[in-house]
Design goal:
It is a single chain. By secondary structure, the protein is an alpha+beta fold. The protein is about 50% helix and about 20% strand. The protein has twelve helices and nine strands. The strands form two sheets. Strands 2, 4, 5, 6, 7, 8 and 9 form a seven-stranded antiparallel beta sheet that branches. A two-stranded parallel sheet has the order 1-3. Strand 4 and strand 5 form a beta hairpin. Helix 2 runs antiparallel to helix 3. The longest helix has 25 residues. It is globular.
Length: about 290
């Protein structure tokens, strides 16, 4: 049986004269398969799941960016109905075609401006890619904060961030045509392993064992590539993850402490305050006031 498709209209999303809409959504099974009369750039912020696109289904994971043109039916779905245990959280950037003309006029790089006009005209098909350097993620985070905490100059600020995002996408498309995707270095693989296992009892000795580099050489690599010692890098990762949980969940601070790898709550509070300048409870309270 053919599935029904809803059509979303941009006028529902755009407020006042702002031709842009940004949200951060925990995907579920309530949103219908849909197309729209606007362009959309989506970014998987957390978790994994599936992207239903026309008659296809693709697995998706954190760090993937998607460009969905006008008229293309799609929907994101989590891997299960238990979204607390298996979340799929997506940033959605909804863009009016009229805005792309303004953005293109603002660009002084003729090739970038031409690419943006192609996006507007429907000459660019659906595509996705993995944001290996976190450039897109940082822009989505900034755009979402600026959109939700609107203040003087927010429209111009958002449009400037959108132009940056479009340039990042344009560069990716150009690089993918001209050069093969660079393979991650062994140390990059090690950093990825560390990021995925930062909640465990990681040690420099363990990383030395799996990488076959000496601990002394590893310390040099950490300083060279991260500007931090191993311990400082590990603490920064854990605090970064704890900040995400403080922003996106109502977990108790003691639970968050354990989740990111601290068995001792006092140690967690001490490291958190040293890195962020405030305690976890102060951080959460300040966020609640802002939002």
């Amino acid at each position: 049986m053919k599935r029904s498709i809803e059509t979303y209209k941009g006028e529902y999303f755009f407020r006042d004269t702002l031709l842009l809409y940004i949200n951060r959504s925990t995907e579920d099974f309530h949103v219908a398969l849909h197309d729209h009369d606007f362009l959309e750039i989506a970014y998987v912020a957390e978790g994994s799941g599936f992207h239903y696109l026309q008659n296809e289904v693709h697995k998706v994971h954190k760090g993937q960016l998607f460009f969905i043109p006008i008229g293309i039916s799609h929907v994101f779905r989590p891997p299960s109905s238990d979204t607390a245990k298996h979340p799929l959280i997506v940033y959605n950037c909804v863009i009016s075609p009229l805005l792309l003309s303004k953005i293109a006029d603002f660009s002084t790089d003729l090739k970038v401006a031409e690419y943006i006009q192609h996006l507007k005209s429907g000459d660019v098909a659906y595509f996705s890619y993995t944001d290996a350097g976190d450039r897109a993620e940082k822009l989505f985070l900034s755009m979402h904060r600026e959109y939700t905490l609107s203040q003087s100059g927010s429209s111009d600020y958002l449009y400037a961030l959108l132009l940056q995002l479009l340039i990042v996408i344009y560069r990716f498309k150009q690089d993918s045509k001209e050069l093969p995707e660079p393979k991650p270095t062994p140390f990059a693989h090690l950093l990825s392993y560390m990021d995925q296992n930062s909640h465990t009892e990681l040690s420099l000795a363990h990383l030395s064992q799996i990488s076959r580099w000496s601990e002394r050489h590893l310390q040099r690599l950490f300083k060279q590539h991260t500007g931090q010692t191993f311990n400082a890098c590990l603490q920064s990762l854990r605090i970064q993850k704890s900040c995400e949980l403080l922003r996106s969940s109502q977990q108790k601070i003691s639970s968050i402490s354990e989740t990111v790898g601290y068995k001792d709550l006092d140690s967690f509070n001490s490291v958190f305050k040293r890195i962020t300048g405030m305690t976890p409870s102060q951080y959460r309270k300040e966020l609640s006031v802002l939002l």
